[in-house]
Design a protein that fits this description.
Layout (H helix, E strand, L loop, with lengths): L3 H8 L3 H13 L3 E4 L5 E4 L1 H8 L10 E5 L2 E13 L7 E9 L9 E4 L7 E11 L4 E11 L16 E2 L4 H11 L3 E5 L5 E6 H9 L17 E3 L4 H11 L3 E5 L5 E6 H9 L6
Helix pairs in contact: 1-2
């Protein structure tokens, strides 16, 4: 423990000024205090961790916010979790940059992913403080997106179908392997399309299951490199409105498929219990 007068003498400031600063640091959780003859002030672990951060870590980048699937023209500059062990629910105070008129109590918002630890937080807005530029949310869910290449979670047993196959034959292949889609390859092993169960269903409704797979396959195959990050795969799926990506190696050859289900299992840790 160190007393305020000792701090004032060390930094060459008035003791009243030092106490005012200490009060602010204490409010932010950087300092603990104890009264009495042996009392004084000491830094918290939060303070030690903060000063150990590289300088660039203190240069904040606003975190994106979406409501009802639409990105808002505001950003989150800070997140402080509250009541993390409370059975009444988890809450967080968010420091906001932008027009707070875009958010009102009762709104459900999603923020993230955060730049470093890649958290995505969903919650319901409880209070809005326009003066302090802060909002309080009741957290419904916190998800951490792993930092690893897509090949680690992609299905590597790649099932393909030849371009000369019929819809009936393709349906048998997908059913046999219990999958919802497969790349279509030409005679040289090049990917020329992607056929899914939805495409097969269309052929069935048109009473055309003997048609060549090329008539119903999707010719635009969205690909991702095997060394790209899971977060890149998520963004690509959202941008394209699809649920699977063909994974290719540095030579452009298919080495697997990553699906929305693969990502959800990895994020939720379901691979440990399913």
């Amino acid at each position: 423990m160190i007393k305020s007068r000792d701090i004032a003498e060390m930094v060459g400031k008035d003791e009243g000024t030092v106490r005012n600063i200490i009060a602010s640091l204490k409010a932010m959780g950087f300092i603990e205090s104890k009264t009495g003859p042996r009392g004084g002030y000491m830094p918290t672990l939060k303070a030690f961790e903060y000063i150990r951060m590289p300088i660039y870590a203190h240069t904040y980048e606003a975190i994106r916010v979406t409501k009802d699937g639409n990105e808002l023209d505001i950003g989150i500059l800070g997140i402080e979790l509250l009541d993390i062990t409370s059975p009444m629910g988890n809450r967080a105070v968010l420091k906001v940059a932008g027009d707070l008129g875009l958010i009102k109590p009762g709104d459900n918002i999603t923020l993230g992913p955060t730049p470093s630890n890649r958290l995505v937080i969903e919650g319901k807005v409880l209070f809005v403080d326009e003066l302090r530029k802060e909002i309080v949310i009741d957290i419904n869910r916190i998800v951490s997106i792993p930092r690893e290449p897509v090949i680690n979670i992609a299905s590597r047993k790649l099932v393909t179908v030849p371009s000369e196959a019929s819809i009936r034959d393709v349906a048998k292949v997908l059913f046999k392997h219990g999958i919802r889609g497969a790349p279509v390859l030409d005679h040289n092993g090049n990917v020329v399309g992607l056929i899914t169960t939805a495409d097969i269903a269309k052929a069935v409704t048109e009473n055309n299951i003997e048609a060549n797979v090329q008539e119903y396959m999707r010719k635009e195959v969205v690909k991702i490199r095997d060394n790209e990050d899971i977060l890149d795969a998520i963004k690509l799926m959202i941008d394209k409105g699809i649920g699977r990506l063909l994974v290719i190696n540095s030579s452009g050859k298919p080495v697997g498929i990553i699906t929305r289900t693969d990502i959800l299992r990895r994020i939720a840790g379901l691979e440990k219990i399913i």
